[in-house]
Amino acid sequence: MTETTGATGRKGKGKRSGLKVERIFTTPGVHPYDEVEWERRDVVMTNWRDGSVNFEQRGVEFPAPWSINATQIVASKYFRGAVGTPEREWSLKQLVDRVAGMYTETGRANGYFASDADAEIFDHELKYALVHQLFSFNSPVWFNVGTMSKQQVSACFILSVDDTMESILDWYKEEGIIFKGGSGAGVNLSRIRSSKELLSSGGTASGPVSFMRGADASAGTIKSGGATRRAAKMVVLDVDHPDIEEFVDTKAREEDKIRALRDAGFDVDLGGADIVSVQYQNANNSVRVSDAFMRAVEADADFGLTSRTTGEVVATVGAKDLFHRMAKAAWECADPGLQYDDTINDWHTTPESGRISASNPCSEYVHLDNSSCNLASINLLKFLTPEDTFDVEKFVKLTELVITAMDISITFADFPTEKIGDTTRAFRQLGIGYANLGALLMATGHAYDSDGGRAVAAAITSLMTGTAYRRSAEVAGVVGPYDGYAKNVDAHKRVMRKHAAANDDLRTVGAMDADIHAAATKQWQECLRVGEKNGWRNAQASLLAPTGTIGFMMDCDTTGIEPDFSLVKFKKLVGGGSMQIVNQAIPRALKNLGYQQEQIEAIVEYISENGHVVDAPGLRPEHYEVFDCAMGKRYIKPMGHVEMMAAVQPFLSGAISKTVNVPEEATVEDFEHIYYEGWRLGLKALAVYRDNCKVGQPLSTGKAEGGAKAAEVSTATAEKRPEPEVIEVNRPVRRRLPKKRPSQTVSFTVGGAEGYITAGSYPDDGLGEVFMKLGKQGSTLAGVMDAFSIAISIALQYGVPLETYVEKFTNMRFEPAGMTDDPDIRMAQSVVDYIFRRLALDYLSYEDRAALGVLSAEERRAQAAGEHPSQVAAQVESYAQSAAPAKAEQITGGPAASEEGPAAEPARPVSEAHTSTELLEAKQGFTADAPLCVTCGTKMRPSGSCYACEGCGSTSGCS
To answer: What residue stretches are annotated with the Ribonucleotide reductase class II vitamin B12-dependent N-terminal domain (predicted)?
Structure first.
């Protein structure tokens, strides 16, 4: 049973009055649902890859302003009851009533409210905020609260493991229970003795890396078993552990194994049949680095590794060499990330109860071992007024409402283990955060990577956390502080003063952030005053989570702390179908920047057609930065992301879920610089991902312009290519191959489907025919491929350049698709996509292939090493001898050469886009670094330190 506390107080402290709740959004005597226009919709969700129906529920009821995307995600993921039965929820009203009702009744029963009238106001305000998408609780709340299931409300968990076999086996079990419920967990393995130390029996210990294998296998098994979400886990090791070098290299070595398996023809695609033989793939790895270690790196000094059993130094390493090793491993496979131990523990409110040694899988929740945190995120764009000012008063009131509700949830919540339940109830950790920061900044004319943008973000974050802790102190005055407060009173007050001092040091840039900062200052002053009297109800209040699924539920343009993903968006329509729209923040931004309506319309039309702002009519170059996004022609540089994290970190109890993405040509030294700056700027955790560093990355970015950006295969680029010599003839002339001609055959597999390409050449090396075999002889597929081969071969002989076919057929997407056994072409979106990439590598010159974005593995490696790929192009070993077509002999003419439209095509036709990611690819001619959703087949987009699916709301493992 959960212990509850009524209005009579706790531990004999006497009677306390409850909270008075003010109306801010609702009207007395009017139910919040009655102020909303509701409509009935049909939800039918399909897998874009094969057209199969994933989910269907007709006649669901939602507010008219809600997008069909938000409707689909909520109906498919959060409605409870078997589909097709009377018990199935069918209206958002039922869902919100189920959840909000539990919060209100629990608060009423436990003395949170001064009167029943205050409880009713709380209930109405909460329901109003949820149906108007002002904020959202994390997914476990929607899954579990108010149902017959256990009332689990937390998404983030931290476990502990000691240096005993019993504890290690308990770790396996506890992690499995958490994964089964669709949540994630993190653990620090540094208490386990190293493989260089002895057991009590005299034998040699296995070491933590060895025990990671069992936990990884368990996570992989549970993930494949179809839980609510895939298993997500974090494994942390302290930098002074004797096995740290083995830990650092663990996943990089496995990545080498994946490459070897791939080259041998095994299926090592994400979810492939043979990937299960590869270890450590289900966890994020992070190294806990100390200030002492980082100072040793600065000084290029030695650093001692200490025994887990005696505490003595058992080995010495060069700190700079070990730091370089971490950066190199992360460069190779994206692991390990870093967690800055002393920074984390310097902001720790309860150090007398234990150090902070680990985090949840996405690194935003950092607190005591065997604890959990429930999350909620505020939609910042909802507080931008029509006059483009930030509504401070309503933001403060909503923050009060959300913090109160979140604390109530701990009172009725269930937990996966008794230890986690005890710790969470004793410290009541909360994680309020926000989404849509990137959209808010753009709409108000602030560049994400600018002093003004960082000042606005810092001021809002300070206001949110200051208000949250002030409300926590007020709640403590009603139902008492958290149980562990008395033991940690001095430390908690010290951290509150640190937050307030950071707020005092915040330097404002413009009127908007100055107003928000002034309000934040008042909140921190009141927080310290009330907290000194009452203490605080919560050991932790705020962090920044990924907000993947709930971000889509709130119709947010951007998630968590992220900038806008792209300037063009893919929007589903209620009546079926979809349309392309320009980000609605753009017209607001242009208006705030002083542009007239005619200019705004022209710029928006240009963005709609091109997907970027470069050379937009009338747009001044100094304003380009306002429209920089995570991807696209102008993208935010890596340090822009790091500096934004550093701006808001002093105003968060926890940390920030975010991965800094860098281009493929980034160096190991770049990783060292980013990790060092993360420590210097006061971050708590940092992860860096280099494009194309993992074999299992389903799609990688083609590079052009020296590899600095994702290649934009545009008409303008194509026009720069040397034009083929044209022979004036009245009609195309077929140039037949001789009876005896050189040819080559390539065998291949794409997504498990086997096939063959036989290409015949003219004696002077120009490609003249190609035959493609796929499927059994006599099958319909084999017949179609034969006919397709004949058509292509005849066209080649009539002079249609191979480049035209490469432009038309690469990036064409249909099944079978996936991993290939070709080391030069890691992934193919279809058999046709693979075939014409292979033909391009074998028969086109480097210059032509570079313009088309088709490079060999060796050329990509040269690019990453800073060399020009053309220097190695002649040395590339492939399945056949590469040779440029004999352009002087090509005969062009007729519709095949002149009426096919521009020489270059988008990576994917706009009509085939199913998400904003795919739409951006179609607009700008490159493939995005993001996996395909395993549920619906659409391209996912980055969300914090993982990926979220815009189509169905699934995530790649974040909470």
So the answer is: 43-133
Same domain? For 306 and 438 the reply is no
890 pLDDT band, cuts 50/70/90, is very low
Which of 329, 351, 373 terminates a domain? The answer is 351
pLDDT at 66 exceeding the cut of 90? yes
Asked if 454 contacts 508 with a C-beta cutoff of 8 angstroms, the reply is no
Q: Where do we find the tokens 């899988």? A: 361
Same domain, 514 and 621: no
Sequence-distant (6+) residues with CB within 8 A of 428 are: 407, 410, 482, 537, 538, 539
What is the enclosing helix (H) or strand (E) of 773?
A: strand 767-774
Q: Which pLDDT band, with edges at 50, 70 and 90, does 819 fall under?
A: confident
Convert the pLDDT of each residue in 767-794 to its tens digit: 888 888 886 656 777 888 888 888 988 8
Structure tokens given for 651: 């105003």
Here the CATH number for the domain that contains residue 511 is 3.20.70.20
Same domain, 126 and 165: no
Residue 147 carries which DSSP code? S
CB 482 within 8 A of CB 426: yes
Please indicate whether residue 362 is annotated as part of the active site.
yes
Nearest to 757 by CA among 856, 854, 835, 819: 835
List the catalytic residue out of 69, 360, 374, 538: 360
Tokens representing residue 302 in the block: 């030695």
Strands of 118-252 (E only): list them: 135-137, 156-158, 184-188, 232-238
Q: Which one from 246, 364, 474, 665 is the annotated catalytic residue? A: 364
Q: For residues 495 and 413, state if they share a domain.
A: yes
Largest interatomic CA distance in the chain? 103
Q: How is residue 410 written in tokens? A: 């701990």
Q: How many domains does the chain have?
A: 4
Strand-pairing partners, residue 338, are: 287, 686
Range of the structural domain that residue 469 is part of:
32-153+358-550
Q: Which of 138, 197, 255, 362 is catalytic?
A: 362
Residues 347 and 383 in one domain: no
Is 534 one of the catalytic residues? no
Residues forming a β-bridge with 769: 760
- pTM (2 decimals)? 0.76
Give the residue carrying structure tokens 């299960």: 276
Burial (CB < 10 A; 0-12, 13-18, 19+), residue 194, is buried
| Co-location of 598 and 533 in the same domain | no
- Is 610 marked active-site? no
What three-state secondary structure class fits 526?
helix
**Contact predicate 851/703, CB 8 Å:** no
Q: Which residues pair with 755 in a beta bridge?
A: 748, 774
- Residue 229 pLDDT more than 70? no
- Would 558 be classed as within a structural domain? no
Residues 289 and 369 in one domain: no
Q: Which amino acid is at 138?
A: N
pLDDT tens readout for residues 688-711: 988 878 765 433 333 333 333 333
**Residue 144's pLDDT is what?**
92
Chain-centre distance for alpha carbon 583: 20
Span of 269-278, 293-302, 328-337, 653-662 with lowest mean pLDDT? 269-278
CB of 782 closer than 8 Å to CB of 767: no
Average pLDDT over residues 729-742: 75
Residue 907 has pLDDT above 60, yes or no: no
